[in-house]
From TrEMBL, chains A, B:
SUPFAM superfamilies: GAF domain-like, Winged helix' DNA-binding domain
Domain HTH iclR-type residue range list: 13-72
Keyword field: DNA-binding, Transcription, Transcription regulation
Top-level division of the source organism's lineage: Archaea
Annotated GO biological process: negative regulation of DNA-templated transcription
Lineage: Archaea, Methanobacteriati, Methanobacteriota, Stenosarchaea group, Halobacteria
Pfam families: HTH_IclR, IclR_C
Organism for this UniProt entry: Haloferax gibbonsii (strain ATCC 33959 / DSM 4427 / JCM 8863 / NBRC 102184 / NCIMB 2188 / Ma 2.38)
Protein name: ArcR family transcription regulator
Length: 257, 257
DNA sequence: AGACACGTTCCCCAGGCGGGAACAGATATA
DNA sequence: TATATCTGTTCCCGCCTGGGGAACGTGTCT
């Protein structure tokens, strides 16, 4: 885990931290029990036990066999979260249809905590398999979604996020510093879409278009595919057009809601 | 909320309870702030403040405007939960294709805490709109998914769940007591599928088939539609066949994993 | 300028919570 | 069958944490 410069001060509650440590652990590895959790987190069994009881009563976790796993309540929470983000149905519909039309991977992402989170993803029929899943967090400097969203955030927020970034080179093409990033953002604003030319994963290219409501950016929609199919020409041509028009449809539908 | 007879004893941790009360509240209503939350939960502002700080540091919640909402991390958690349940991709694929084939609503549900949770849902093109969403919990006695799953649970678990049930009549056809329920379960076991004849919502009928792994039930798959299209004959005929063969495909694919 | 929201900070002190150890079952090993 | 060694559970103690009240800072209305 990277250091977190955005740590605001103020008191934080230990028991709650422990509870979420347990949840995090169960997210990584389901089916473990009291002893194992206690060892892993460095707490006494009795402590962990009380916590598990609490979480179980809350239906956050479920006993299964001889161990615990996270409960299905999280699915419900997740669907509420999506709804709260606004117009998820339209986003979903547009992403799905673009994926079907093009046969590639289409994703919609929003910014949170200085990273991109994927809200929805659809795979067309000859889409490449990638590891990214809905909900995953990715850095903003190495993805077209991230750069595109960043380009349209308010200047002070761009500064803030850029300052907290650690430029880790994922491939030979990854952006490695702020100057380069700011130039790229400028380009994106000029052409109205963003490109990822194997900057995050070797062999993969993406184009993204911003989705705005008035002047505030809501997120971005992207299409991803292998460099073999995604030539320079297609990227800047028809593929860019695809995402821009999809973004437009979403914008039009969200504007009046 | 119904009373919870399954309350195991044991110590439970107050601060964690408070934290989840806050999360629950934010799930219901996003965008509220410290004061409002404090009022709603009957805590002091300072208490709520510390909790919000903790949750924010954990990225469970996010500041937005002047209020908080649940964070996108929940999407990630939800996708982990689905994976942990086992073979979600196969379930998803089968549900989607059945929905496309029939044009109706297809759902997959599993039992948790004596209720049915929807793991996945797909709407065909002329599907009726229903309120149920992924993650929602429904009672077991009034839904075909619920009854079907219940029918194949171990006897002692059936007893346990049935004992904790409160039979609330949703429509004129809702099952109203244990005897009636047990008879119905017997019928389901005999015919190998379960029917909901407007027992949960007026005008809607469903058929469900169980998905088992060896002798343990994993969940059930159902198809839902308006009574006008879902006649007695179709329900027990082609529609039952549809869900049973879909259930079979899932069973075959999960068996060897 | 005043009044009233809001979020934040400070401090206090009771009681909640973490930990150690003892206890209870279940499974394994001989 | 007895012994050992895993589990999960319960009990109790004492520290310190977390909840509450009140003061404070700030912005937004009259």
């Amino acid at each position: 885990m990277s250091p977190q410069p955005n740590k605001r001060p103020g008191r934080t509650i230990r028991s709650v931290q422990i509870a979420f440590n347990i949840i995090d652990l169960l997210q990584e590895e389901a089916g473990i029990g009291v002893t194992r959790i206690a060892d892993e987190l460095g707490h006494s069994k009795s402590t962990v036990h009380s916590h598990l009881r609490t979480l179980e009563e809350r239906r956050i976790i479920v006993r299964e066999g001889d161990g615990y796993r996270l409960g299905l309540r999280f699915l419900d929470v997740a669907s509420h979260v999506r709804d709260q983000i606004g117009n998820f149905d339209i986003v979903q519909k547009e992403v799905d249809s673009l994926a079907e039309e093009t046969g590639e991977i289409v994703q919609f992402g929003v910014e949170e905590y200085g990273m991109v989170s994927y809200l929805h993803k659809a795979q067309g029929e000859h889409a490449v398999e990638t590891l990214s899943r809905v909900g995953t967090q990715q850095p903003m400097y190495s993805t077209s979604l991230g750069k595109t969203i960043l380009a349209y955030l308010p200047p002070e927020r761009i500064e803030e996020i850029a300052a907290a970034m650690e430029y880790e080179p994922k491939t030979a093409n990854t952006i490695t510093g702020p100057e380069e990033l700011f130039e790229e953002l400028e380009t994106i604003r000029e052409q109205g879409y963003g490109i990822d030319d194997e900057e995050n994963i070797n062999g993969l290219r993406c184009v993204s278009a911003p989705v705005k409501n008035d002047e505030t950016i809501l997120g971005a929609i992207s299409i991803t595919g292998p460099s073999s199919r995604f030539t320079e020409d297609r990227l800047h041509g028809e593929l860019a057009d695809y995402v821009r028009s999809a973004a437009n449809v979403i914008e039009l539908n969200t504007k009046f809601s």
